[in-house]
User: Which sequence fits this backbone?
């Protein structure tokens, strides 16, 4: 038996140990150290600000100069930045080593006339800017990077970085990257919320390397599952990996705002962490497109980051602002300040079904969920 | 076969060291004493690991275990959890030196 595509991603013991260290480092700086900075702001810096100005800092613009000179804040910036570099360097080491094997395996699968599903690439697609030129998370080269048509490195780097987070939280297992459980729990959540839903055709917008789309197909084997993403290496990787899992998926490289599918084609359209990573000017057009693509009564359901300014404290806003400026999250603020409900209504979704809420998923972190029905 | 040619390819690790990716300076008052503390702690821990490993390698050899057994070793969830805990302790120690 050949090794499944995602299982080819096997760090050596030494790479694994390095990546494990990076995971622990990120967990600490994004967790404990970050909480200490926030606490210091509330306990010491904010009262000092108040004593000087006679009022509290009311927004992040007032709070940025309060935190910037603080040694703990500076140490947080420095270690977050370093840990991100280490993330890419240690993941890159594994990707550089394994790339020829992936390349070979991809060529084998693509040569098989009986392969499942479809892959539609668009060589003429012009990447919308500034999305196309942004290195999200400072991933070297970004999501769209290719040194040749066949280059899968951007997909592998993305997958490897997700793996480091998963492992640091104790979910990962060496040699078993790419977990499809997010799709299965989403299907369960949707069937609970919309009991009448019997999806025939499902679309995952901004599907990345396709993990969630695969889980949806596993949960709804009778449905035709489609995945769309701007990144050619991502959709290509998803197509190959789906074949290894014996799943028939339909992958397409396209802009979610201009997907090319016919009107009313889907019963369900979902996305996971698409909107905070796409240029917020695109959001209205993506919502209009989702509305156009759904059949009447069809469901639109999105999972994203819960960092809306009214949800988080002032120091947390300063830290997020730093991530936006320094750590490859340029679209984060635009999304967090967008009134998604209003946008969905403007896109034509039924006011009775439009929602935006915060909910813990899979017993873990809280997410921002929003959507509606046509 | 694809057109991919590994000889010509710029490695991702080399991209990470592109001068255009120069690291910004975030810490204004660098306290070298703290950096020395953290570095020495790290060196100590690395040295401890190297010595420990030496014992294991010697023992393995005594018991006729080939070197490539290390690469094919699969850690149990208990071992993984133990390692996670150790890494987290090291990170906490080094960063507390820097504060
Ligand atoms: C953080 S990734 C999320 C991937 C996947 N949904 C997941 O949960 O792992 C965001 C994805 O959105 C894609 N993306 C961003 N803007 C897009 C757009 N306008 N149309 C289609 N895909 C887009 C990116 O290429 C990237 O793969």
Assistant:
């Amino acid at each position: 038996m050949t090794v499944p595509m995602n299982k080819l991603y096997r760090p050596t013991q030494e790479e694994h140990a390095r990546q494990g260290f990076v995971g622990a480092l990120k967990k600490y700086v994004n967790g404990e150290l970050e909480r200490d900075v926030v606490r210091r702001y509330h306990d010491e810096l904010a009262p000092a600000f108040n004593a000087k100005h006679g009022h509290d800092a009311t927004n992040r613009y007032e709070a940025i100069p309060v935190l910037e000179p603080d040694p703990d804040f500076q140490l947080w910036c420095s270690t977050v930045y370093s840990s991100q570099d280490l993330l890419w360097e240690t993941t890159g080491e594994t990707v550089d080593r394994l790339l020829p094997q992936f390349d070979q395996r991809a060529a084998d699968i693509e040569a098989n006339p009986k392969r499942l599903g479809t892959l539609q690439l668009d060589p003429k697609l012009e990447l919308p800017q500034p999305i196309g030129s942004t290195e999200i998370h400072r991933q070297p080269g970004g999501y769209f990077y290719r040194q040749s048509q066949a280059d899968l490195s951007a997909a592998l780097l993305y997958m490897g970085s997700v793996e480091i987070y998963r492992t640091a939280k104790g979910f990962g297992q060496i040699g078993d990257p790419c977990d499809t459980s997010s799709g299965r729990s989403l299907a369960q959540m949707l069937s609970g919320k919309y009991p009448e839903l019997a999806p025939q055709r499902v679309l995952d917008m901004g599907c990345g390397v396709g993990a969630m789309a695969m889980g949806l197909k596993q949960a709804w084997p009778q449905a035709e599952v489609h995945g769309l993403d701007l990144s050619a290496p991502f959709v290509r990787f998803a197509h190959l990996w789906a074949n290894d899992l014996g799943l028939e998926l339909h992958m397409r490289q396209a802009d979610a705002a201009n997907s090319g599918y016919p009107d009313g084609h889907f019963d369900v359209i979902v996305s996971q962490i698409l909107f905070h990573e796409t240029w917020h000017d695109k959001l209205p057009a993506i919502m209009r497109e989702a509305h156009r693509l759904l059949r009447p009564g069809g469901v639109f359901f999105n999972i994203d980051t819960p960092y809306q300014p009214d949800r988080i404290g002032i120091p947390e806003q300063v830290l997020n602002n730093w991530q936006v400026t320094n750590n490859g999250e340029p679209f984060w603020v635009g999304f967090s300040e967008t009134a998604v409900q209003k946008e969905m209504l403007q896109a034509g979704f039924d006011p009775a079904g439009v929602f935006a809420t915060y909910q813990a998923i899979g017993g873990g972190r809280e997410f921002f969920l929003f959507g509606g029905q046509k | 076969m694809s057109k991919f040619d590994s000889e010509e390819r710029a490695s991702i690790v080399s991209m990470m060291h592109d001068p255009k990716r120069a690291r910004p300076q975030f810490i204004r008052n660098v306290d070298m004493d703290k950096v020395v503390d953290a570095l020495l702690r790290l060196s100590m821990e690395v040295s401890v690991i190297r010595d420990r490993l030496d014992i294991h390698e010697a023992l393995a050899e005594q018991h006729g275990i080939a070197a490539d057994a290390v690469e094919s070793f699969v850690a149990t969830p208990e071992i993984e959890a133990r390692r996670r805990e150790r890494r987290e302790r090291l990170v906490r120690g080094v960063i507390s030196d820097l504060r």
About this structure: The domain at 181-373 of chain A is CATH 3.40.50.150 (Rossmann fold).
